[in-house]
Amino acid sequence: MSYRQLEDRYRELAQLEHASDMLQWDEAVMMPRGGGARRAEAMATLSTLIHRGVTSAETGAWLERARQESGLTAWQRANLREIELDYQRATALPEALVHRRRRAATLCEQAWRVARENNDWNGIRGALTELVALTQEFAARLGEARGLEPYDALLDQYQPGVGRAEIDALFGELKSFLPPLAERVMATRPKPLPLPGPFPQARQAALGRELMRHLGFDFERGRLDVSHHPFCGGDPHDTRITTRYDEANFLPAMMAVLHETGHALYEQGRPHDWLDSPVGQASGAAVHESQSLLMEMQVCRSEEFLQFAAPIVARHLADGAHEGAWQADNLYLACTQVERSLIRVDADEVTYPLHVILRYELEQALLAGDLPVADLPQAWDAKMQTYLGLATGGDHKNGCMQDVHWYAGLFGYFPCYTVGAVMAAQLFAAARQRRGDIVAGIACGEFAPLLSWLRDNVHGRGRLVDVSTLLVDSTGSTLGIAAFKAHLEARYLGH
Amino acid sequence: MSYRQLEDRYRELAQLEHASDMLQWDEAVMMPRGGGARRAEAMATLSTLIHRGVTSAETGAWLERARQESGLTAWQRANLREIELDYQRATALPEALVHRRRRAATLCEQAWRVARENNDWNGIRGALTELVALTQEFAARLGEARGLEPYDALLDQYQPGVGRAEIDALFGELKSFLPPLAERVMATRPKPLPLPGPFPQARQAALGRELMRHLGFDFERGRLDVSHHPFCGGDPHDTRITTRYDEANFLPAMMAVLHETGHALYEQGRPHDWLDSPVGQASGAAVHESQSLLMEMQVCRSEEFLQFAAPIVARHLADGAHEGAWQADNLYLACTQVERSLIRVDADEVTYPLHVILRYELEQALLAGDLPVADLPQAWDAKMQTYLGLATGGDHKNGCMQDVHWYAGLFGYFPCYTVGAVMAAQLFAAARQRRGDIVAGIACGEFAPLLSWLRDNVHGRGRLVDVSTLLVDSTGSTLGIAAFKAHLEARYLGH
């Protein structure tokens, strides 16, 4: 049976993905610098071998025959559909391009770590220019095969079913809704009492681990470590999240841990019988971000969560004085401040989409060739001024060099954060409505009802259905901005 | 040119080896337990894919044609010879056996970690029995292809050119030479002043790193971490060693670090242009152990090294009192005590070969089917009594469960430790004789002359020549026991 042969082939390729995912984690968390060049070669070769396995004549022939086979279950049919899509994408790309682009991306990311530390834009410009050129070729070929414009082909890789039309519509609404909201909140929201540090890294890590456990993270099947940029990687039975620590301020690391825990719970909850098959993967990057943002923004910055968490936070970090500062209501104020800032990952949920819109517009210009890489810092500053009223003043480290994405070849990914934030609000509103015990559970540290709802409605479904069906099944409607607006108005304006 | 195609194929396979080596390190150092089953599958698949690449029809055809090609350099000819050998071994083994054995080995090693902690022989017996059976089949097939008895085929994998005849001759001499020597040393050697602890792990690690740097380990290209069993793994540009710490006694961890540093320097010094080709690999496991034991036993337990190292050790670990204990002469005494003990890795260099001979004899009996796995603990105790006059008294943790090797499928490896110790003495005697500045350098912390000699005579040669030629070129004679005896007599009897 050809379908079975495809399944076996993909199970084997999944082991190369496992190796690649673990090497990528290791590269960011453990690898000494001198290992970089050889690691880039290994990563590129793993990508090549996966590509070769997908595009082989055998795979093509099995697919041809599998299309005719009857008696497949719904999961098998969905798996076949995902394999078709993967085959279509992979056969659009020559092996040499896959190898070159992966190697260039790994080397560029390594160089970015050094250049960013030194605010050295000139030191990274060349590598980024090469990566943009390789990505242009990549996107053009992918688009041709998929019948999409090049940039849409990149979006389609990360979140099929949410294209430029949907994104433009959402972002258009956000561009008019958010700036006046931000102004109003900044003018009216009380400031929290200061939370006095310093906070030693080991204590912050212990706090992070305790909160992760409460949310349902299984340390028999995962780890928390440190890296330049927080991320979630690894395997569903060995899920590894990272954060970075600032000893003067514990909130960014704590929130990054809670955010990445949302990603990790999705990975740990993927459908057990399909972990090594395309249909068992997470349903795209926007849905993934919806899970991290649901956890961070909807759940963990809520009054209910902070009622539960405040004593735990204080136990790990408080110095015995400043008791008022460690109360839930003050932590809630600290977690829901709104301000214009240069840094996306530290931004509040009201201004965050503006950071994303800026990147969405710039990356389209970069890939279309309308914006030369050399002019990126100026273009960045101009948009920063427009959307956030701020100037970087040559601080590229906190300007166009702040995020790893472009330097790792991840063009077309940024919109997923805001699409994910919108989805998160929609999903959480539905969850609360459909299960009355979720919010009450959060307030007393009982997260099982929430996790159970997410497992049933998102995590455990993998790619069985497309994102639109997933949302309709779980929330009753397709992607829309209403719940996100309602959430922001309720939290920040008390509506 | 077919030879070039072989080179390219092997460069690609080397990237899978890189992934496999890094996953193995990660498995021992980082992986949470729950990741074990899926990791075992990934490791098995990587082995399968490497095997498939080596045994493919293309490889066979390229080899056929490459044999006829003229104009190859000496390195290329040696590389072709190594590829032939690899092909001969790999084609002897069915892919399914490679996959099953690798998976069984990874799972058995994981189970051993838990069982050993709990002294639970019954908990590991089944997995070991399966692994022995798979290894019997493996050895029989390998032996048939190589024209060797099964056990010799295992030895041949780890150290070609040092077979059972050579090992039996060496071990025969050691069995009569060592026990009376040990008795005499135990009766006469003064005891050192006690070295009072405790020694916090972080301080021991800092000491280890400082000594590693002095010996020439490059931390831009490597790491030191913690694992159940000290080992050296990784990549020549990212060489990772591990140790384990006892806060009551710093010497075992320090000596393990120095031992593994010897391995690491070999890896970091492999021929630069051939790192991803068979000819650029280390010249077998016995030669590898010769490098770790040369560093640990010949160099770092010498009076000269301890003159240099004593103040460094004291700076990291001493408590300000007990000054006499931290002097070089007392550390030298502590590093050269001889005593009967249950544990191989903690054994002194006089009794160590007896631990190896015991294992060498038992593993032959296991593989021949003369010793059922179920009877291993009794057989272990009997040999322990014969060679070391000790009984484990049911302490399997420190008996037949103490070493990872068998539980990781490494049968035929143990003899390499003692062959390596003998080679180490022979190489170090030649090095001292040929470069007068080596010993003087060690006493003042100047290790460049030693490292340079090792780079030229061992590390940088890869597998260009066989082990016998390597020894003749560097020492003037083939493998012999004279230098090892002379070393022990000089150090322990003052001859």
Protein traits:
3% strand, homodimer, three-stranded mixed beta sheet, 495 residues, 20 helices, mainly alpha
Shape of chain A: globular
Q: Could you give the order of the helices and strands of chain A? A: HHHHHHHHHEEEHHHHHHHHHHH
The helical percent of chain A reads: 55-70%
Which blocks of ≥5 consecutive residues of chain A have pLDDT under 50?
Answer: none
Structural class of chain A: mainly alpha
State Rg of chain A.
22 Å
Give a quick rundown of the structure:
Two copies of one chain form a homodimer. With 495 residues, the first copy, chain A, is mainly alpha-helical. Helices cover 64% and strands 3% of the residues of chain A.
Description:
The structure is a homodimer of 495-residue chains. Chain A is mostly helical. Helix content of chain A is 64%, strand content 3%. Chain A has helices at residues 2-29, 36-55, 57-66, 74-91, 95-117, 121-146, 150-158, 164-188, 201-215, 251-268, 285-300, 303-317, 328-335, 352-368, 376-388, 415-434, 437-443, 448-457, 467-475, 482-493, and strands at residues 222-226, 232-235, 238-243. Chain A has a 3-stranded mixed sheet with strand order 1-3-2, sandwiched between helices. In chain A, helix 6 packs across helix 7 and helix 12 runs parallel beside helix 17 (437-443). Chain A starts with a helix and ends with a helix.
